[in-house]
């Protein structure tokens, strides 16, 4: 187990922010993970997965433990489903591609989402009509205080929109080691309800799409509006789409008749933060070497060597402006450190 001191985290966060960790170790086994957690040389420990949902604003005064547990296997098969266990350090998109190659369906709509398998339940990742909770059976997680491993089943994770118990009551208490998904190996439930997927499939002239076709369509949509973090630093959606009272929405309609919305309940609607940010005039705005993406206003970008604080200040300015213009408080989706 190699512990490196004064280690740059630039290549370990998709925003590409260049801050230093006091020390860094990449763990490939449970044994190494436990040893890293128990090391007394560094009091503070900081758990890092794919680094795709975080904004680093300062040096990390801790031993950063990069979860690099690898492996994937079929652990069970029923009449209609396979249960596939993947270890936390597997790259999410590579796992999706592998599943499609095996003809395992259920996560094709989640193609090309950056990050690692272990992070997927924490914020219940979702895109194009599918969320992790739809295919999640359980995850094994290590309690950092007791060293015990607990299996969390779907209900216990209290999944919500970009939410789970791991972001709430159990925050920082568990490290996810592996996740088990239920996937189909025949009679796939193809989900093409999301408008953009239908349009994309029509463009390819595909009438009866396979899981591979859906994945291709999702990849094409994402590539057309989301910047590739390997080229431009970003963290996907920076904010969550806010849920507001229907009465509030009706009032907004008077001034903004074209505001999009999705019904959440009888009394609440969700409005796209991307629309609000665009209509507040921020879309495509560039400040020095950072800004708001020109194709999807929900994405903040680092064009070069911006600092985490530059981006955080921009995020705060956007929040205040949206509040002033629309009376809506938008919440950050990324974790700020
Ligand atoms: N919109 C604008 N301007 C923009 C961006 C969006 O007007 O600059 C409008 C669009 O016209 C559309 C609506 O907002 O009417 C929704 O846009 P889009 O389909 O691009 O999705 P989103 O709500 O902005 C969410 C997720 C994405 C996910 C997509 C597709 C959140 C916070 N974001 O974005 O997730 O890929 O739906 O399902 O829920 C992520 O979490 O990192 C992420 C990329």
Structure write-up:
- By secondary structure, the chain is of the alpha+beta class.
- It is built from seven helices and 20 strands.
- It has helices at residues 30-38, 92-101, 195-203, 211-225, 246-255, 273-279, 308-326, and strands at residues 4-8, 20-27, 45-48, 54-55, 60-67, 72-77, 81-87, 126-127, 130-131, 136-143, 149-153, 174-184, 233-234, 243-245, 262-263, 268-270, 286-287, 290-292, 300-302, 335-336.
- Strands 6-7-12-10-11 form a five-stranded antiparallel sheet, with no helix packed on it.
- The two termini are 26 Å apart.
- The model has no long low-confidence stretch (mean pLDDT 96).
- The site of uridine-diphosphate-2(N-acetylglucosaminyl) butyric acid has 16 residues, from helix 6.
SSE inventory with pairings:
Layout: E1 4-8, E2 20-27, H1 30-38, E3 45-48, E4 54-55, E5 60-67, E6 72-77, E7 81-87, H2 92-101, E8 126-127, E9 130-131, E10 136-143, E11 149-153, E12 174-184, H3 195-203, H4 211-225, E13 233-234, E14 243-245, H5 246-255, E15 262-263, E16 268-270, H6 273-279, E17 286-287, E18 290-292, E19 300-302, H7 308-326, E20 335-336
Parallel strand pairs: 2-5, 3-5, 4-20
Antiparallel strand pairs: 1-2, 6-7, 7-12, 8-9, 10-11, 10-12, 13-19, 14-16, 15-16, 17-18, 18-19
